[in-house]
Design goal:
- By secondary structure, the chain is mainly alpha-helical.
- It has two domains: 188 residues, Clc chloride channel (Orthogonal Bundle); 202 residues, Clc chloride channel.
- Helix content is 70%, strand content 0%.
- The protein has 18 helices and no strands.
- The longest helix is centred in the middle third of the chain and has 31 residues.
- It is globular, with a radius of gyration of 21 Å.
Length: 423
């Protein structure tokens, strides 16, 4: 076999990776500028109970109206494939990208409990798919798509390495293109990061200042317990999502009415609990700074309300990613566990559940462990309980059969099946 560096396809991919990194860095900056500055309307009277303002409901329902009108004008399907689905198929329909980005921008500015990764992933994956279609080799087409997706996440996460790992773990590329994807994704993500970070001064998903702790042997066992707690939280989220999906089903064909109703519902939740608004990134900073004052009971109420808000947004036509809300849910849940069991250090409980709750439903353990460690400036030893928690949560949830049931249900959805695209 000839060395990889002697392959023309390899150098073409790296050339495309550089272009992707530059293009998507500025595209991501523009999108995240809109999202970060679109929350000017959401200043609460307090972070506690009923700290929101009643007129927020008009804003969130209005955002739903705009979402519905965009969907109707562009004749978008009732459901659109998410990040995990797009990476699994290694394909994003380029023509769907403008609509997805527009709806996602309105959703996030309107306070939806979703993340920006869906829109950015669509931008990167759509660009990668468009460029990759010029290739004759199907493996290089898919490698180019994944390279574009990694470039889109270069400035979103705390490190280009995390962006690359996330793409690799979720896509699981075939070994014939694995090395190409590794190098292409790392180049694209690094170039994007090198442009994004100096301009923005930070990544979108920031750092959380939790008190450091000294690792002890029993923390490994604590990781098991925290992983089981995270698994329970993930199962509750799955149940809530299933209930909301059934309740929203009669509105599936009501393209405009459906997001208006959804907007009104999560707006009402925000009036009662303002921390449930938006992606959860800035709101988690509030939890870290004021969690002990807010109390364990209140934080658990926020966790449940955020689950409902996330499910409502996901099932009523808004577009956004699941990772940011799930990270907020996990971090807040972990803080509440620390308050209930003070002997468990805050950084231990926070970091373990922060990573393990999304890790319970998504097989991306390396990405989540590294993400938690980097975001909280933890040492090598402190990553061990996080890894244990993520593995425990995933095994517990997959062993329960909930993930299998949900996957079968989604595969049986004719709308979802028709959206995945034919490559």
């Amino acid at each position: 076999m000839a060395p990889l560096a002697h392959s023309k396809d390899f150098w073409r991919l790296l050339r495309d990776a550089v272009v992707f990194g530059v293009t998507l860095a500025f595209g991501g900056l523009a999108f995240l500028f809109v999202v970060e500055n679109g929350d000017f309307w959401s200043d609460p009277t307090s972070d506690g109970w009923w700290g929101g303002r009643w007129w927020w409901v008009a804003v969130t329902a209005g955002a739903g109206l705009v979402v519905g009108l965009i969907r109707r004008v562009l004749t978008m399907p009732a459901r659109t494939p998410g990040l995990v689905d797009e990476l699994a198929t290694e394909y994003v329909e380029p023509r769907s990208v403008p609509g997805a980005v527009a709806v996602s921008a309105v959703s996030l500015v309107g306070g939806a409990s979703l993340g920006p990764e869906a829109a950015l992933g669509a931008m990167g994956g759509g660009l990668g798919t468009h460029v990759g279609q010029r290739r004759t080799d199907p493996d290089m087409q898919k490698a180019t798509m994944l390279t574009g997706t990694a470039g889109a996440y270069g400035g979103l996460l705390v490190s280009p390495i995390v962006a690359t790992l996330l793409v690799l773990e979720l896509a699981k590329p075939d070994r014939r293109r694995l090395t190409h994807v590794v190098f292409g994704s790392l180049v694209a993500a690094t170039v994007a990061f090198a442009i994004f970070y100096p301009i923005a001064g930070t990544t979108f998903l920031g750092l959380y200042d939790v008190p450091s702790y000294t690792f002890e042997d029993w923390h490994i066992l604590a990781g098991v317990g925290l992983g089981l707690a995270a698994a329970l939280g993930a199962l509750v989220l799955a149940v809530i999502t299933g209930v909301v999906r059934r309740l929203a089903a009669p509105l599936t064909t009501r393209t405009v009415v459906r997001p208006v109703v959804g907007g009104a519902v999560f707006g009402l939740l925000a009036v009662a609990l303002p921390l449930t608004l938006f992606t959860g990134s800035e709101q988690l900073e509030t939890v870290v700074a004021s969690g002990s004052r807010l109390g364990a009971g209140f934080l658990l109420a926020v966790v449940l309300a955020k689950m409902v808000a996330f499910a409502v947004c996901s099932e009523t036509g808004f577009i956004g990613g699941p990772f940011f809300p799930m990270l907020f849910i996990g971090g807040t849940y972990g803080y509440a566990i620390h308050l209930l069991v003070p002997d468990v250090p805050l950084a231990l409980a926070f970091s373990c559940v922060f990573a393990a709750l999304p890790g319970a439903v998504v097989a991306a353990p390396f990405s989540l462990v590294l993400l938690a460690a980097l975001m909280m400036s933890l040492g090598a030893l402190e990553t061990v309980p996080i890894a244990v928690a993520v593995l425990t949560a995933y095994i517990a949830v997959t062993g329960s059969g909930v993930l299998v049931a949900l996957a079968k249900r989604r595969k049986g959805d004719p709308e979802f099946g028709s959206r995945r695209g034919v490559r």
